[in-house]
Amino acid sequence: MKTQQLLPHELRYLQPFVRWLGKHSPDDVNESIDASRLEKALRKRVHGLSLAEAQQRLDADRHTLQSWLESSAAAGNPAHWVLGFLTHPELARELLHTPAEEQPEPIIHFEPPAGWHVRAIPFNLNLRKGKMRAFITAINEFSFHHLQLPGTRMVASSKGRIDEHDVQFGEVTGRKYLRLQTAPVHQRRLDYVLAVPGGFASIILCRTDDGDFDEIPFEAQLRTLRMSGLVRSTD
Predict the structure, then answer these.
(1) 82: which residues sit within 8 A by CB, 6+ positions away?
(2) CA–CA separation, 209 vs 219, rounded Å?
(3) Can you tell me the mean pLDDT for 119-128?
(4) CA end-to-end span of the chain, whole Å?
(5) Alpha helical stretches, state H, 102-204
(6) Each residue of 163-204: pLDDT tens digit?
(7) Residue 220 has what DSSP assignment?
(8) What residue ranges define each of the domains in the chain, with the CATH number in brackets?
(9) Contact predicate 195/181, CB 8 Å
(10) C-alpha radius of gyration, the chain, whole number
(11) Which of 8, 86, 98, 179 has the fewest CB atoms nearer than 10 Å to its CB?
(12) What number of other Cβ atoms are within 10 A of residue 80's Cβ?
């Protein structure tokens, strides 16, 4: 998107994040996007408010954004993603009770299948074997629930589908999403949103050439996934 419409004046605090979203390919604007910048902006928006006041303010912003998107925004405006984020029913509570600056960096423990190489970076494990890639990201409880909301996952092309299943790997439980796109290119990708001992994780499993693959050897090791040092959301 070469140019981008400005949001209504009362929503300009969201503009930096929407502008950042607009730099991404439409295929990449999905549930795996890092929402930490948006969460920080929203925390500032509700700072010092009671839960009821914070919910009222977020509701007003959501209605304003929805009205603007329906009446004035161009098709495909990245602010649609923000609107989906604002629909989370526990958003106000989570923003008031889980400030990002107080979250320590978690440690991710995982025993990969034979032949996989692992690189640890803050909040993530990046794994590779040949053309296979896996990305394990530590998330909080709010993100764990948000990533499973209806409408947060979609195939950019109209030719494709997403299948979802409940999964369990030992003590690790959650949802598995098969993203299968048939046009304009064939692409198969697996996403997992998991509750693990000590915390929560989001995982992407794919090939760099978009080819098919067997996920069973990788899934067999998900029972070893653990977290330490991750702050869980409080009520």
Answers:
(1) 14, 17, 18, 21, 38, 65
(2) 20
(3) 90
(4) 40
(5) 141-146
(6) 889 999 999 999 999 888 766 667 788 999 999 999 999 999
(7) H
(8) 9-101 (no CATH), 104-228 (3.40.1000)
(9) no
(10) 19
(11) 8
(12) 16
